[in-house]
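Memo to structure team: turn this sequence into structure tokens by end of day. - J.P.
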Amino acid sequence: MNTPLANDASSLEIGSRVPTPIPTGAVYINASQYCARLGGISFTTLARYIRDDPDFPRARYFAKRIRFFKVSDILAYEHLCEVRSAAQAIIHNG
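Reply from structure team:
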């Protein structure tokens, strides 16, 4: 699945935004912050990413309904996406 997660603006898809920075020292961010980081996507799109990509970070629930995502999981997933993207570029460009 191709999601706009790269850290530099030149590799983002058309119409994507530069990711919102994670607050310094944060261990978790809430679903709204994560949606903003992913370019202002909706909660429905976030749910679709979670459903369709087994590597996408999983939410942790606090108070039975508030979704939070672990920052280390997000950063690991973003790194994985960058590696996949680089591998695809090597395959396609030789």
